[in-house]
Amino acid sequence: MKKKKTGALKRKMLFGMLLILIPVLGVVTLLFWQTRSALKEEYIRTAHHDLREVSRNVDEKVDEVYAMSDVYAGTDEFEDYAETIYSKRSSSYKKGAIVRIHEQILEPLDRLNRREKLSAMYTWRGELLNFRDPNQDTEETKHELEKMQVNDPANLMQLIWYPARENFLLSDKPKDIHEKMAVFASRRVFSREHNRYEYVQIFALNEGVFYDLYKDKAKALRGEIYTIDGEGNVISSSDEEILKEGKIPERLFEKVQDSSTKVLEIGRNKKSYLVDIKNQKSMTGELLWLFLRHK
């Protein structure tokens, strides 16, 4: 009889404890999710703010290239060099011309050496003057420019930007991926005197120039930042593997395109990620900044 009473008492005590614990656990769970939600919202606000700052910094660098392109396009001395047929002369003659362009045009236009300089010029005669590395003067180099269609008549005199790719203007490839990759831009220059497009400006900015604008933010936010064009091609990224591949994963790009919100959650490699999106249309075309963080 006593055992039955003892068992009943224990059950009552256990039931009483559960009545107390269940509401407490409910409150704790609610507080946990509220706190988690508040932290998530704060994190999203911080990411949005940082992406806006990154986009402004990138725009400033792009505007700098536009400004220098205008200056070079208005410098008539380039036309004299564009008229020369270097393939019929010695290699030392062309290298001498490159040295003179550096000393007489490029350096005087930027004496403080703070702005992006012209990397090369590709003349209407099919001649390449490589200012970054005169030794990288090969048919393969010119073939890469042709593949990019830098002299496409449809480009008119627009400055055309290209996704990040290995910098084929350099003969010695840097080991650092951000120095090895480059973001190219080209612009055809019209000559009123000769009534034709005289040459194409070639800018090759180290991808690291853009990466340096946001790498500290990516580390502070413990995530990855991607700058992509309207087709998902990578312009710059803190994710070195994606930078090498040159394109973000197709599934991620599809979700970004289909998303009507600035934030979305995705699954990738069996993990959940929070994606913050900054969309912008600029003179370079449509650009998107993505911030990807493992939840």
Number of strands: 11
Rg to the nearest angstrom?
A: 29 Å
Main structural class: alpha+beta
Please write the string of helix (H) and strand (E) elements.
Answer: HHHEEHEEHEEHHEEHHEEE
Percent strand: 15-25%
Seen as an oligomer or otherwise, the chain set is: single chain
Helix content: 40-55%
Q: Report the mean per-residue pLDDT as an integer.
A: 81
N-end to C-end Cα span: 57 Å
Report low-confidence residues grouped into runs of 5 or more.
24-36
Helix count equals 9
Largest sheet: 6 strands, antiparallel
Shape: elongated
Describe, in plain words, how this protein is organized in 3D.
This protein has 295 residues and is of the alpha+beta class. The chain has a domain at 61-209. Helix content is 46%, strand content 24%. The protein has helices at 2-73, 77-83, 91-109, 139-147, 177-180, 207-211, 215-220, 240-245, 250-258, and strands at residues 120-123, 128-130, 160-161, 165-166, 181-191, 196-206, 224-229, 234-237, 263-268, 271-282, 285-294. The strands form two sheets. Strands 1, 2, 3, 4, 5 and 6 form a six-stranded antiparallel beta sheet that branches. Strand 5 (181-191) and strand 6 form a beta hairpin. The longest helix has 72 residues, at 2-73. It is elongated, with a radius of gyration of 29 Å. The relative contact order is 0.12.
Summarize the structure.
The chain has 295 residues and is of the alpha+beta class. Helices cover 46% and strands 24% of the residues.
Overview features:
295 residues, alpha+beta, six-stranded antiparallel beta sheet, five-stranded antiparallel beta sheet, 11 strands, elongated
